[in-house]
Amino acid sequence: AQSVTQLDSQVPVFEEAPVELRCNYSSSVSVYLFWYVQYPNQGLQLLLKYLSGSTLVKGINGFEAEFNKSQTSFHLRKPSVHISDTAEYFCAVSESYNFNKFYFGSGTKLNVKP
Amino acid sequence: EAGVVQSPRYKIIEKKQPVAFWCNPISGHNTLYWYLQNLGQGPELLIRYENEEAVDDSQLPKDRFSAERLKGVDSTLKIQPAELGDSAVYLCASSFGGESKNIQYFGAGTRLSVL
Fold this sequence. Notes:
The complex is a heterodimer of chains A (114) and B (115). Chain A has 114 residues and is mainly beta. Chain A is built from no helices and twelve strands. Chain A is globular and about 45 Å long. Chain A starts with a strand and ends with a strand. In chain B, the strands form two sheets. In chain B, strands 2, 4, 5, 6, 9, 10 and 11 form a seven-stranded mixed beta sheet that branches. Chain B has a four-stranded antiparallel beta sheet with strand order 1-3-8-7, with no helix packed on it. Chain B starts with a strand and ends with a strand. Classes of the chains: A mainly beta (114), B mainly beta (115).
């Protein structure tokens, strides 16, 4: 089974500043990687995914993430955040041999301040 | 296109009472998931259906939880009897299936409070 670690439970940042949300996973087997965003009282919305190909993936709302196989990481970045990015962000991993089984991290709350 | 629909959005019950949650997945999605999300944590899989077959229910507490997806479309998750520790958000998700399309789409969830 996978273990997904999101080291930062909360990240405060000022508007228009860059941000990085960290995600590490445990297994070195072939994986698929996802970032989801959850706004208050809503379900999870897919931000971006890595299935194969380029290790730098771009998603919605200006977010991007880079898959680093050697470091088993999939960090999420945005060069300039907006107030509307305030939400909780979840990293998820599935293994290619059991791709329907998702393992989620515990989430990172991004708080964008004016 | 409608997303994953869950009802009710909120439910407050007393302990030992039964409760049921309903989920209607995105049309054409043959895989349906029920997740439990405790406060401050990520979702944890309870059960996964491929059409009407439960293919992964290893994390479902079968003494009090049950689920069904009789016609391979909508699904119901039931708790009987509910305990205080069951207070959480219950999320339903669906996916088209197939390795290249294993993106899960989530409903808004049902927030359960057990008093």
